Amino acid sequence: MNQESDSKYHKLLVMNKLIKQHLLYFILMVVSFETMAQTQPLTTILENGDMLIGDQNKITFELAAKSGFQPQNVAPVVPDSVQGFELLDKGKWTFVKDTWTRDVIFTAWDSGAYYTPTFQFAVVQNGKSDTLSADRLPVKVAYPKLKDEQIAPIKDILRTDFSFEDAIPYLIGFVTLVLLGLIVFLWRDKWRKKPQPMVVARQIIVTPYEQARNELMSLRAKQLWQQGEIKPYHTELTHILRDYLEKRYQIPALESTSDELITALRRTDMPDALQFKLRQLLQMADLVKFAKGTPEIAVHEAAYETAMELIMETEPPKVETQLGLN
């Protein structure tokens, strides 16, 4: 009986010891969790770690109400220069189920592996203003791949039947010619008696520089990107610039890719600094024309200013001649 009592007592001591150890471990876990929650109350969640150029991605920030912090509905502080990223919507804080949440929408224009920007949010705790910094998360940006089946085949030209409406321009032209001939016939004698003075015409040859400058100013007056016509705006801008470079340096700029154009310009007297700006402008225009995202307003205005600078810095000499006509 004494041995059985001792054995039961020993087992009871062991069980009490195990219970105390587990209870201590549980208390340490709770304290550690609370400490971590206090040191890092802001949680950062990235919707998609892999994205394509121009796609929209989302970062969700969560701030638990029990942390004692209350966010302020002001724009987050982000570094002025964020490599590869463009913020489309900085969002606002919303309170759902004891948690403050905020969604930030962004896109990327360069391929590669990056980290999301460091966001800093203004908060209040116990009546005092403070700032919380979010974690940076890795994101991979890749170029989109075109599939063969996405390229539609070339269709034949559809021809319609000739109608009376189609003949109206020809009839107007014919009547106009008849009237002009009648006027010439009635006034031919008067013209023969009156000596024809020699006309000296002043012919001004428009240089490629003047033509390109006028076309750029006309493009700005159209206000295409202000009306949502972003792709036509960048297409016309790059066409004006390519046409000018082709006439100015006698290179096939209109038929060349961006890389081929830059390679051809290296054999000219165009400064390297201008060639670098031209490469950036063409790359941005290609991304705008093929990406899904909508760039900021500064992108469109900067493209126009860069194009005008390239033309003005490479202005060719102006030619003026006079021709005598009988």
Structural description of this entry:
Helix content is 45%, strand content 21%. The protein contains seven helices and 13 strands. Strands 1, 3, 5, 6 and 7 form a five-stranded antiparallel beta sheet that branches. A three-stranded mixed beta sheet has the order 2-11-8, with no helix packed on it. A hairpin with a 2-residue loop joins strand 6 and strand 7. The radius of gyration is 37 Å and the shape is elongated. The chain starts with a helix and ends with a strand.
What portion of the residues fall into strands of 2 or more residues?
A: 15-25%
- Mean pLDDT across residues: 79
Total of helices: 7
Low-confidence stretches: 30-38, 321-326
Number of strands: 13
Largest sheet properties:
5 strands, antiparallel
Alpha carbon gap, first and last residue: 144 Å
Instruction: Please tell me how large the radius of gyration is.
Output: 37 Å
Please state the structural category: alpha+beta
Q: Identify the overall geometry.
A: elongated
Helix content: 40-55%
Order of helices and strands: HEEEEEEEEEEEHEHHHHHE
Break the fold down into its secondary structure elements and pairings:
Elements lengths: L1 H38 L2 E5 L3 E3 L3 E9 L5 E2 L13 E5 L4 E3 L2 E10 L3 E4 L4 E6 L2 E6 L4 E5 L21 H30 L5 E6 L3 H15 L7 H20 L8 H8 L6 H19 L6 H17 L6 E6 L1
Helix pairs in contact: 3-4, 3-7, 4-6, 4-7, 5-6, 6-7
Outline:
With 326 residues, the chain is an alpha+beta fold. It contains seven helices and 13 strands.
List keywords for this structure.
alpha+beta, disordered C terminus, 21% strand, five-stranded antiparallel β-sheet, 7 helices, Immunoglobulin-like, 13 strands, elongated, 326 residues, single chain
